User: Fold these one by one.
Assistant:
Number 1:
Amino acid sequence: MILRLAHVVMAADDLDAAHAFYVDLLGFVEHRREPGALYLRGVEEFDTWSLCIVDRGAPGLLHSAFRVSDPADLDTLAAQHERLGLPHTRVAAGAEPGQGEALRVVSPDGHALEFVHELEQIDAYDADGRLRFPMRHSHTGHGIPPTRLDHVSLRVPRVADSLPYWLDELTFSASELWLDEHDEPHIAWVRRAPASHDVALGTNGEAAFHHVAYLVSDPSALLRAADLLGDARLASRLEWGPGRHGATNAFAMYVRDPAGNRLELYTGDYVRDHDHPPLCWRPADYAEQGHSWWGFPAPPSFAQTNPLHQAGWVPATVPASGQG
Amino acid sequence: MILRLAHVVMAADDLDAAHAFYVDLLGFVEHRREPGALYLRGVEEFDTWSLCIVDRGAPGLLHSAFRVSDPADLDTLAAQHERLGLPHTRVAAGAEPGQGEALRVVSPDGHALEFVHELEQIDAYDADGRLRFPMRHSHTGHGIPPTRLDHVSLRVPRVADSLPYWLDELTFSASELWLDEHDEPHIAWVRRAPASHDVALGTNGEAAFHHVAYLVSDPSALLRAADLLGDARLASRLEWGPGRHGATNAFAMYVRDPAGNRLELYTGDYVRDHDHPPLCWRPADYAEQGHSWWGFPAPPSFAQTNPLHQAGWVPATVPASGQG
Amino acid sequence: MILRLAHVVMAADDLDAAHAFYVDLLGFVEHRREPGALYLRGVEEFDTWSLCIVDRGAPGLLHSAFRVSDPADLDTLAAQHERLGLPHTRVAAGAEPGQGEALRVVSPDGHALEFVHELEQIDAYDADGRLRFPMRHSHTGHGIPPTRLDHVSLRVPRVADSLPYWLDELTFSASELWLDEHDEPHIAWVRRAPASHDVALGTNGEAAFHHVAYLVSDPSALLRAADLLGDARLASRLEWGPGRHGATNAFAMYVRDPAGNRLELYTGDYVRDHDHPPLCWRPADYAEQGHSWWGFPAPPSFAQTNPLHQAGWVPATVPASGQG
Amino acid sequence: MILRLAHVVMAADDLDAAHAFYVDLLGFVEHRREPGALYLRGVEEFDTWSLCIVDRGAPGLLHSAFRVSDPADLDTLAAQHERLGLPHTRVAAGAEPGQGEALRVVSPDGHALEFVHELEQIDAYDADGRLRFPMRHSHTGHGIPPTRLDHVSLRVPRVADSLPYWLDELTFSASELWLDEHDEPHIAWVRRAPASHDVALGTNGEAAFHHVAYLVSDPSALLRAADLLGDARLASRLEWGPGRHGATNAFAMYVRDPAGNRLELYTGDYVRDHDHPPLCWRPADYAEQGHSWWGFPAPPSFAQTNPLHQAGWVPATVPASGQG
């Protein structure tokens, strides 16, 4: 079964600028840098990395990966995608650093997804055998810092068309839905982990990337993040917030990275069991306090998305449904 | 499968005093009060209650309940306890308010446990059909307030003897272990939910109740809780903290309620997948910074426990193992 | 000598609505209510009141009062205003509740100002003689709550024309100035207390009232205030913020009260001795990060001001300069 | 007149260790280091330094300095100390870095005090002429960091004997007094600035040094400071707190530096005018919640003081009273 969002791979145009922003300014932990790719994590993560930034000359999303609870789940998921006629392929262990065998698929709504079980873990012990929590190094740290990957926000052609795949096939649970005047959902927050979402889906006419979100420890950390950007004379990168969301109830802020990717810093959403019906917002409700519980409209730039970079994700020779 | 801790039922000697403390001072939400019992929840909970306080003339614990993901899990768990020769009984829906059919057992380490699937949910919509998050009523609230039930801390005869039941039978995962000089665990943090623990188990020579813990929204809420107690001239009820734990990494505070039960207010532990080995503390490590990352020893009173009130939990006629 | 801003008297159209907003929602302490007037204070104030709201059928400002260190300062100030040819009059003790004899003047920039020494103090002891800090009643309180009056923001015909009165005559010190392209100040932050300002002066073409500001204890209190407004479905009253100011370095939020008066909630400005030259902002600096260190422009409504209600402040028969 | 505490000069046994602690760990700003002396400030200070640590092979206090509002105040204070028969001497500008002419005295209770008007200020503008608040460099900073010097805590032979000098001669105002069973004050909080104190005086039988206190921005900064010490495995240096004081109402924490000096980190005391009578605590009140509003007794080590290093402060040839 799918446990949670495990990592996101984003595109950028300048890895030095990405390093300066994510590591030097915000305090992401650098796990590894190799030519063309930067592997990062938040300070409370036990996986060695959760964000990879690769040089593609432009912003955007390559893929989102989810951890499954058992290696055999990859077989089940492969058979399922075969049945659904969706492109899929297996990649051997090591295709990404510290990662075991994985299954790569393209979702019906056009997104590159990966499923994996084995993820390299940080060494939680010092050289002298003493337990070291990753988050307990503030004396050598700086920045906010972000604690862990929370969710990815994807744009899809039509959310109502996407939900059967996410809910019925992948067994995600919708925590919240925004319904239009015809009661059709156009934004859905879906999750396998118990918090409000691992993935947000928004109707956009086409598949695109909206943002990746990292948790921070508490609201005061988010205010320090805004100050950090202001102090570094990067206030123009602060797109929206800090403020309280209506949907998810989180306290959050959106920032643009040097490449133009949108990073959300996020804290304080709720936890709710999976088998309860989604909380549904009606147009009058979300118009007023849905995006911002404090009533501030999103800036026009918030509608902008970044492209997908999925070329070669699943080999062209992978048979489509019925041809396997 | 077991999802999470769902509720705790505690004993008290004075329900009016309990109401004054939990509801009027700390801001727990009162779901229901009936003769001899008070049903409460935190402000971010969707279940209608998570803490029941019953009049027994003394502090202590009656039982801890866990939610299972499917009603059929009750059958599986009943068969499992039958196989283990452990006392167990089914109770019909409604035995506790808003609750479906449940299975009651006594664990090998002497604790009354309950498993249940169906739990009444709060109405998340207003009379006018508008979505209302439970936590978004600060304008009519007061107190800290606590957000949701986090964990229960149980004392057992010997943790090493308890772990096979919790880990192998109930499939909890140990997030952390404190090992003695012989590498035997004497405190274990175990969980079904992804955070650090649903249950803490500590070696005590006999089964007893140490504390129940509720989450608060962030560290500033916990400081307000300490001020609240000081302002109400109840500083003597503040037993330990606020401070950072070593184990679990949470920021926490222990308070004694009017009956003498210990309530922990808690925020900020980590999330970690279940299938990784527990983080193990050695004596030199926890002696220094295990209980308090800031180095403050627990007060002597912290070793005190409260008794169990389990009479009649499972009828005496329930057959023990081999007699079913 | 002038010590600090002591109180502000504002106009409103509905004292019940003002009570519901300031007392019931935000947590201001009600000192006294009498027909047509409501007397309030923050929870850390030792003066019995610092904000008076009077029924005038509309929002606006009646006067701002400053405390002087010695009763004899009133004579000095009266002589000074006589010399300057400015309207001034003495009012007997008790003209405002708990207040000693006062001097009322009209400033050259058209504002009603009051100077007073004697201000009734709260009783800091309980009936049993135990010391009670006013701020240590959180167990019976609610709301943010605001701690104390910080400053008043006045609009004047031309700041450059106002400064000789405020700086040379009243011996305020300018902490910061915003200079236009001709190096002429158009906003000035001036103070007698050591923090960034007791009074803000902004060029507006005519005398008007912009806002009154109260301190809150820390940034987390300000976030709770925003949530409080959102939860009460009053998000539309949240005009700007929460955010970091460039000028003053404070973390702040502007709210409109039911009458339309603008209330700033404010925390974290700096302290600086009076005899140092003002910190001067150039147009390029404040355009970018002056109002908002995080780069968010003020909403258009922020330029709106409220009128002055000064009729009868100083009797028409008070002789102007040279006629005394 | 005396404006405020301006700087404190402390002794240490190892300036490298002091640098590692104050600058590298806690985030004090290093203004200057010269052989045998380290000059530091908090991040919101406009004076170039407020803490000097000098190598004396042991912890302790050299002197405390106060800023006066006018250079001529030095003459007044010199005449006053001459009249009182107290040792005093003038030192030329530059005796301490960036400092104008000063007056050095020994108080009747045995403390080396300095009065000075001219203090070098930081350059608040960048090379490009843009205004730069000192606190707005979080992107290049680390540590808590402390914001500014708040107070110094001195032990004196008998507080009741000290008060006439501090209150009547130096015109400090007592904000709070702890009275013994005979109504004699044994701790006094006295100030020239409007907050709760610039100087704390405690009866000790002899003159000694208890602690120096720096402000932090808010309670969350103080919690980060405690984490910082824990993470650096310096929890043993955290002597008491974080917690709410009864006296002063501040949220505070006491830390021992590598030399053994006691540093208080402090935030949130109140502001009150000088001419009101002190708030008086009776034994039953401060026994319960005076030191700690949350009821935690001070550890035994908190009674320890550090010595004075005043040799040569005022030349031996300075005439005592009656010999001038």
Number 2:
Amino acid sequence: MFSHIKDLQFEAKPDGPDALFARRLQEVLGGKWGELTVANQYLFQGWSCRLPGKYKDLLLDVGTEEMGHVEMICTMIARLLEGAPQNLHEAAADDNPMLAAIYSGENPAQFIHAGGGPLPVDSNGVPWNGSFITASGNLMADFQLNVTAEAQGRLQVARLFHMTDDPGVKQMLRFLLARDTMHQNMWMAALQQLKDDGLEDMPIPDAFPDAEQENEFAYQLLNFSAGEDSAEGRWASGPAPDGKGTFSYDPAPAAHAPAPVLPPGDPRLYGTPPPTPGGIIGAVKDALS
Amino acid sequence: MFSHIKDLQFEAKPDGPDALFARRLQEVLGGKWGELTVANQYLFQGWSCRLPGKYKDLLLDVGTEEMGHVEMICTMIARLLEGAPQNLHEAAADDNPMLAAIYSGENPAQFIHAGGGPLPVDSNGVPWNGSFITASGNLMADFQLNVTAEAQGRLQVARLFHMTDDPGVKQMLRFLLARDTMHQNMWMAALQQLKDDGLEDMPIPDAFPDAEQENEFAYQLLNFSAGEDSAEGRWASGPAPDGKGTFSYDPAPAAHAPAPVLPPGDPRLYGTPPPTPGGIIGAVKDALS
Amino acid sequence: MFSHIKDLQFEAKPDGPDALFARRLQEVLGGKWGELTVANQYLFQGWSCRLPGKYKDLLLDVGTEEMGHVEMICTMIARLLEGAPQNLHEAAADDNPMLAAIYSGENPAQFIHAGGGPLPVDSNGVPWNGSFITASGNLMADFQLNVTAEAQGRLQVARLFHMTDDPGVKQMLRFLLARDTMHQNMWMAALQQLKDDGLEDMPIPDAFPDAEQENEFAYQLLNFSAGEDSAEGRWASGPAPDGKGTFSYDPAPAAHAPAPVLPPGDPRLYGTPPPTPGGIIGAVKDALS
Amino acid sequence: MFSHIKDLQFEAKPDGPDALFARRLQEVLGGKWGELTVANQYLFQGWSCRLPGKYKDLLLDVGTEEMGHVEMICTMIARLLEGAPQNLHEAAADDNPMLAAIYSGENPAQFIHAGGGPLPVDSNGVPWNGSFITASGNLMADFQLNVTAEAQGRLQVARLFHMTDDPGVKQMLRFLLARDTMHQNMWMAALQQLKDDGLEDMPIPDAFPDAEQENEFAYQLLNFSAGEDSAEGRWASGPAPDGKGTFSYDPAPAAHAPAPVLPPGDPRLYGTPPPTPGGIIGAVKDALS
Amino acid sequence: MFSHIKDLQFEAKPDGPDALFARRLQEVLGGKWGELTVANQYLFQGWSCRLPGKYKDLLLDVGTEEMGHVEMICTMIARLLEGAPQNLHEAAADDNPMLAAIYSGENPAQFIHAGGGPLPVDSNGVPWNGSFITASGNLMADFQLNVTAEAQGRLQVARLFHMTDDPGVKQMLRFLLARDTMHQNMWMAALQQLKDDGLEDMPIPDAFPDAEQENEFAYQLLNFSAGEDSAEGRWASGPAPDGKGTFSYDPAPAAHAPAPVLPPGDPRLYGTPPPTPGGIIGAVKDALS
Amino acid sequence: MFSHIKDLQFEAKPDGPDALFARRLQEVLGGKWGELTVANQYLFQGWSCRLPGKYKDLLLDVGTEEMGHVEMICTMIARLLEGAPQNLHEAAADDNPMLAAIYSGENPAQFIHAGGGPLPVDSNGVPWNGSFITASGNLMADFQLNVTAEAQGRLQVARLFHMTDDPGVKQMLRFLLARDTMHQNMWMAALQQLKDDGLEDMPIPDAFPDAEQENEFAYQLLNFSAGEDSAEGRWASGPAPDGKGTFSYDPAPAAHAPAPVLPPGDPRLYGTPPPTPGGIIGAVKDALS
């Protein structure tokens, strides 16, 4: 259960309107690596976490914080949209090509649909969707994703930092950069903690029995693109990071099995060519008996 | 440019048909963490890589290999769909409830749309889409994502391994598990290589000037969910993994700035309440002059 | 079954081309609250209506009319796109920054994909989709949605009215505004009619037995955001609109049950931590016996 | 800014597992009218609300409460998935056709992707997306939508109530039904409050000048579907609900203007037929001069 | 403008309910090749058609007819859903595994969302969307698509024909098969008519000047997959169908230009490696001067 | 299995940057008719092809070639984005309105998300998705689609050709135009080859028994849009292209059956009106007995 207070986590106001930047800022609100993603991802991971204690608490702490970041960016976007020109006539009134550029570079739905406010969409107006998040039940797999999410997020905020001159906007971005620094470090520490606690290890999932995988392919780099530059990296020789194998390098693709030939399909599917009539239904039953 | 040979990278045939499992197998073909994702992700990362040599070659090697995994799973799905019952009458013919269960648990579009073949969709029939991949131009951010992709992928294959008894299917999954082991290790090694080569470091992007972020928030865990379990992890005290700061813990949320009050919007947007008439257009012009 | 006549329901031509406005006009064609939504929503509601007579007829009347609005807007968009500059060179020919702004603010797909015509997309080029409509089988729930659809639609048309100076376009918008006025009123009247006819009432669905809901929570405002401003509205005290209860106000969140602890998951799902091995399959069987 | 406590708003546990119902319950979590929709919708409306005081507080109160409903349903789904059979062999172990039916009616991604947990998707596995919510800046238009959201939501919960026999699940649904009762009433009261406060009225947006719409079409029912049953409703005669007009009925479609003929398109778009060569670019410039 | 009569174009009733088949039938209603696609596609093509006369009339005739097919299938689905079991208890009441299979193979949203009615979705519950249709402005390109749409549609209806034993359903399918036969023939005839009328020819768009394409690659089959089976077809030698060239066959891929090397990116995008600092902004200005 | 060489199939470099055109070029990379579509479509058709020999080889040849086209366009987009202005200040530095127009007409995600590189999206930033491709198992239905794909693709490239003045970009487009010419011809030849080989014929699927369709409707044009212009085409009289029927024309819509009346729905679905209580569940059981 949640409660809300009306203060922002970090207060910053723009010096002036900028509808073009407001469209761009949507990327870190409703884009794949935006705040809606991390907020929902950490909360779902927390709710699905079957291990009470520090991991579950951490996920709910940070997911709840990120909901506050959603709020901060929504508020900033609403402020950046204030006073934007509403038509070409206004945009042209000043003989200022920049004003026209801002008008034509807007997200029109921020005005027509949202009345001058934020939308749960990315910088092109494509809606955020639930496939952006993953809560797999395996904390190490998910913490890896969380490191990435904070890295991609910080990268995007850093890029946006160079796309505006507004001091107030820059101030908010500085705060977000700092939190992304914390969160990158935090998920890295959590990965180490999982190992220290003996809960999971590489290769994920570590509990899958080694004997069940085709181990001859498990530490071998295969060369599928012309040139052998890739043989020069750490990944082509020496010990593998999981401490369980040694990298090798195969300059040619693996030896091939004979080419697969598919049998004719069911006649009632009208594939080409029409298969020989006659029952293949029985095969299903045999397979199950 | 690519060329194709008709052999599969690893040949495995199912012992018998299983349309229900064929639907499930779609998850690792066209789901968020399926083969279409890793193939396209590594290729786009390779094409966008502005650094010739071992990293670009590696990305194209592995992206090209993954296209061959797409092919393997497509072929396996086509084979698993052979001889499936086409209607309830057939499914009921044997008084075998399992046959009925298979029929009702199918993806109908594999028959109606694809004529008994694979589709670029997940285990629920939702189409694969381009937002599943990221090629950010920052190799460390992307290699972190690649570790995750292989970890989530191996986790899903391991789960599928327990969902079938078919020896041929299991054989293919064993091969995929092994390649995912390699690829997890490989991207971990590549992360270390980037650091060794002095190209990137944490927090990503390392080149962003430290002085520009709000450093007081950069190593501090904030407590937003009741209880202080999260204070017990490595992420709440001690040195941070980036070697640049020391974790601290703030049991209460950060001090709050005054609550934001939004001004009235543009009257032509018909928000509530109707704002005072009069020009706010000028503010745009002032801001730009 | 439908028939078509080639006249538009209301004829209006633009005075001149305006590709930038043509992109914006897409919002009320293929956006969430556009004409494709209302046309399909009312027709699906009509086809699913199990009550012959005035309600079914009304739904089919208005759904069919809205198909004609789709046609009007499609035609207007095609006309607004005529003669648009096809490249930057043309857009720059006149040293008119407005022409450049129009060019850069276009929806490129209206030219590349549609050859200078409309698309079933919104003002950002995102395709219309079937989840925009609802036909629930409960007429009162759906008529409420229809009131909203006409209110949001009229709001968007009113906003667009200020985004153009073209007399012909404004003429078409005036007609659409009038029809939205009618349709808002009409669905409000239909809501009242449903009550008068004794078919449905609040809370929807009225037929659900009162005794089956947790009535102590059915008329109580809970305070989850700091501050008690919300206690000042009609919704916090006095009789509720359904005539069946009296509003109350609880300044604190409801009393809490003990925190939930999830048991370990199935070992074959590789969650964290690895659960105690041993059968939980039996529980399914027990629950069903 | 938000804070979280780990108690659920209302605690209820299922008596046993039911993976088939867990899939269905996703509809009110991540479907169009599910809890993710109302939570995000009310919060975005609150953040975009430019009117401090009771309306803004109410939106944030209820949006925050709904986040707690998301949490309740996520937790319930995780519990319902415990102990589900992981393959056909297990599902068949008991000769219980119901067990097989449950297995084949599952959402496979709840296991393969989410490891036995909830997903932000609907009952068919289609992801929740941002277009499900609207925050238009016009409170009356949005409160109408909120009434609908609670009506459609309560309708869906009522239907789900008949799809399970589990006492714990039913208990949670009883609570949700009660809150939906409250919220339907609350938004109805808020609509009235807006009128009482003189902030908005029908037809929405009331501030749009009456003289600018084509008033002859503003209160007239047009007959587009054969039969005149629709003339029998309140919407065809008598005073309109907005108090500003009187309904009339036109049995025939409105008189038609001449059929529109589109001119040939730009030759570089390769439409059919090839248009007369020659400049239409000038028209753009003329229109803007 | 449209008008509607309440008769179906072809009346057929199912003998009994079948919720499992009702889910499958959604494919030809709201799937990629379903009736919503052809109805909207032909209408948009008609509205965008800049050539008055027989082509425009044909498109509007057939698009309008297809709206009636949408209606027929919606009605059939509503009927097939009547009396479906609403929970596992009912489904198990008869010890009939088929009843359980039907229950678990349903689309749950047809009940929870649509109250026992059709939805604008495919057989997996994925919503229809606007990208399914194309109206390019080039009639020959679009009529080719229309042939395909009718071919894929007839193929799907033929497959569905074998998935039911219900005489009433089969009767409706027989009618749809016949109309698809007509429409395949009709669009083939229309392709020929366009050539006869001298409006368009292959390769589409014929009006693009031959001299502007790289003609040495215009009639050559390139061999990119091992084996030379593809050299045995009509497409590898002899006259090409457009009458303008002769097919040739190149067993090896085309000669290659040197490998592309991308220059370093903008430093503010934080790609790897960090590029040499210094201005590349000037290049944009130079290119435009 | 695939292998990759680093040369492009056809090398072309832009003379200078053009971020606005780079956004437009995305249409033929990740749009509905772009290279990702044809590459994946032909490969899936090839993998699903159950007929070894020239057809399967052709599909894999061309699908593999198209992967190389994806690579070419990705590389071109990365080059066109080099040196683009990163903010309004830079865009305004030169008093060049064209520079501002380019800035505001960019796809912002190409910078924020992709760091100055391509994305798997269309010209509006909407992600490519798997529903863009079809591999139906029926080669004639699919080859028809392939002709269309190449026709729509060539049309789009021809339109783009007029949207740029850059000689290097035009050079690449000339190559793509030539390959689209080949591929249109090739799939037309393949359609003829299928007939010559006796594998399939019109109407597709030819193997569906003629006696099972309602033949009286199979060659008749129905007039649903006012005016009889459509009677003047080849499709209204004379022999049909399939050689099996003769076109006829029915000026009036087909005779109508009585209007359908739906029975009341299940009471637990809360439709309007509430149906008579009492069992309709039994009907399901009867239908299955």
Number 3:
Amino acid sequence: MAHHSIDCELCSGAGGEIVHRTEKFRVVLVDDALYPGFCRVIWNDHIKEMTDLPVPDRSTLMAAVCKVEAVVRAVMRPEKINLASLGNMTPHLHWHVIPRYADDAHFPSPVWADAQRQPAPSALEQRQALLGRLRTAISEQF
Amino acid sequence: MAHHSIDCELCSGAGGEIVHRTEKFRVVLVDDALYPGFCRVIWNDHIKEMTDLPVPDRSTLMAAVCKVEAVVRAVMRPEKINLASLGNMTPHLHWHVIPRYADDAHFPSPVWADAQRQPAPSALEQRQALLGRLRTAISEQF
């Protein structure tokens, strides 16, 4: 049986543009002007922590996160991948998969720290131009 | 064969107080005055990304991260667990396992954002007092 919370934005909304959806989780593309290619893997049920999931579901979710990481690396060619499950504001299990570049707004700080610079529009446009390939590659990967 | 990088602080140093060590990874307690109970799970070899690991090693590492999460939840009783693998400055695979509380320095923001408040010394002391139990519980869990 699915568990949902009436006040949770990841229960009431998709959390981004859905590129792949299974019974248990969905992969969304985040609309973040500074971070083209930022994806989230969101567990469909309203579960708070990784260790609230049965062990097989943890493996299912992390395998999905790793699939998304692999595709983001292949298509977006970032300097580094950042993975995080935080959920302090939205305690509904979701993983951020963020492609990072030496010239991005916060590098080498986390994206939640103060910005270090204004990224060059041309660099952001180049990354935006890859999103069509990223959508296709994610849906093909699953 | 182990892979090491001469300039990497997680190759040359432990990265914290070691509470458990296996051939493949180690669990360390981070000395952070604002975040008692902050742990890291560090892959011993100099590997950059999760998807640079063979699939069985990814499972080994995430199972360890989840074990640490479970123990930190049981002993430290946080409001939320934050998990993250960033590595922009130190591209050597390591997971942050951070117990978060509604009255901590940054809640509900990530710990890398601007501080929201000065935590009460009594709250930090209470959490510091649990570290002995945390060390024991982690080493018993593996």
